[in-house]
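Q: What structure does this chain adopt?
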Amino acid sequence: MTRLKHTLFAAFFACGLGPAAQAGENVMVVFDGSNSMWGQIDGVAKIEIARNVMDNLLGDWTAERDVGLMAYGHRRRGDCSDIQTLVEPGADNRRDILARINAITPTGKTPLTDAVEQAAIALSYTDRPATVVLISDGLESCERDPCALAEALEQRGVEFTAHVVGFGLGGDEDTASLSCIAEKTGGQFLSASNAEELGAALSAVGTAVARTPDPEPVVEPEPEPEPELPEVTVTGPETAITGSDFAVSWSPVLGKDDYVSIVPAGSEDGTYGNYTVTRDKTEGSLRAPADAGLYELRYVDRSTTATLGAAPIEIVEPEITISAPEGVITGAAFEVSYTGAVNKDDYVTIVPVGADERSYGNYQTVRDKSERTLRAPAEPGLYEVRYILREGNKTMARTSVEVTLAEVTISGPASVQTGQPFTVSYTGAVHEDDYVTIVPLGADEGSYGNYQTVRDRTERDLKAPAEPGMYELRYILREGNKTMASAAIEVTDAQVTLTGPASAVTGAEIDVRWSGAVAQDDYITVVPMGADEGAFGNYILVRDKSEGALRMPAETGMYELRYVLRQGSKTLATHPIEITFPEVTVSGPATAIAGADIRVSWTGTVSENDYINIVPAGADEGAFGSYQLVRDKSELNLQLPGDPGLYELRYVLREGSRTMASQMIEAKQADVTLEAADQLRLGDKLRVSWSGTVGARDYINLVPMGSDEDAFGSYFQVRDKTQNDMKSPDATGLYELRYMLHANNRVLARRTVEVLAADAALNAGASLSAPESAAPGAMVEIGWSVDSDSADQRITIANPDQAIFTWIRAVKTSEGPPVQMQMPDQPGTYELRFLDVSNQAVLARQVITIE
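A:
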């Protein structure tokens, strides 16, 4: 290992393995595939030796770096362009590179200079760090100068490095030609003459490529001078009692999230205890710690936890006393008094003697009082009452209390019937929240059944269970649910009887009788024969009675009456009953006007809450229309629906809404007429007449033309009239006069009416010609034209609101137009009228103003 030793130890280890590949740079291995690689060393071809040790070069570093493979002279003889990238640079290419090297067949020339140049270009050597590892066994054979290339690559590249491993070189000329590539690019040249040396050389190059260069020394900047912190003045009392609240103030406020805290004197910055946030205030309240000693009040900058101001404070122990009775009975309430209370949130509690600090039992906060009521535990023994400081849950005072068993007795009847109320008495009641209960004999502690709290009484009423058997009465201490006294009691079956009729019709009310009633809230019910226990239908409570009325179901069949114990819903007595159909009839007219009232009669009333109903023919069972309860009657009036068609009168059983009888009826369209003037003036009255009235609640309605069918305007009910006057609308325009059916607001007749201005002329077979105004008392000439003739036609002048066939003055028209008429003496608005007195008709009207 002569030359290799010199190269490795002198050039690598003594020089720190030479330049390392930069972290993250790409590497290209350039492999000699020329024909000379078939030459042998120790009887083995150089290509085989190289294949066997190439793994030494490609270590773990290939998993983190982009590595590629380029070969030359491996495909064609005598071709200096036979250079090929076999594996593109990429991470974790180790297996691919070894596989491609194993497939190389040495064939041609040695264009190593061009190969190194192409490898550098493939690695973008001018833009980023790049490393080429050349493995070759001889000289450049394609007339290029590798040393000149190396110098150019070093000048143009960004940290370009080439490592060269020469294998089985011929002489010094070969060595010099290859070594200059490494020397000029800052790489390493290693020469090997056998397999061992080649493996070592490749390992050394692999180490050089993998090594990350030492980082550049970091120059520590000169430390910045500490900024001067602002100062805050903190003020508080010199002393405070442990656990007490005390006032603290500060100035100025530097940040709304800063805080003032109390900490032991000398604590490091960042330490905090109880604190208050400054917000935008300059004062607040803190609670003193539970332990006495020297403390500091600190104003702390929230962002840096730096203390900006401080003040000393001494925390001292309070002088607290507590007293309680020496002995109390289990579960009893007793008074605790204390002095020197520190904070309203402190509390007094009772715990076993020697209980751990922070233990607590029943407790009360002290508030602003000097005494509180506690409840003794359920278990007898030695206890102590403690005054506990809320801050730190520290015991400040204590006194001993002995808790002894209470002497309680309980008694009741030796036996009761199931579900029966009975009285329980007791002595030695401990607390008003204790309770008495009845449970099965031997039931677990804490079990309860029906119960009553004892309150301030000595006896309470309980209700026996529904199941017979042996039970016990218990007095239970609310504190701990502990049984303090008990007494045995037997619960026996109640002797109850129940009677009623053997049969009844559906929906009928029947009389039921019973005896041996147990409790007022027991009930009588009717259910299908064999129904499950607990089932119920219509029912009545027994109260303090022995009989009552019960309504039967709507469906026929076999049923049973049951006396049911409310306690446990247990059946104590039964009676069978058969429910049959009643014989009911209903009748009315075969036809009637739609919306009219009709007379309906019936027979076989079942219940006064049944009803007569009218619905469309074929309507579902239970459908509703116009209806009336039957009460105690046998006939009534019922309004037909407003729409013509086939309907059905039904007698409906209230129980189950079941139809018991029915009759078909046809509702026919009403023949209604409506008459009124075609025109009227604002403020005038419109006379309306009609015929064919359907119902007294129908109405005449005047609405603007085009209104919805159910729109409302000015209206009146027709009642028993055939004519009525109605006031004109408040605005001119076209209107529609409608006869409306009350049953469904359907329009049965309609007529158009035009509302004109208050001074508009109204012509109906004639017209007037006269001035629009005249002086008081003046003579005015009036002309006219008329379409008809009669024995008595006159022109009159009247007040506008005066009855049509009354007037101030009148002139007959028998001598033909024109006529002279004197005007009234009083100024105002008047109306000229052309009247056909013989036919009681108004033929024309015109307003005239006297001024």
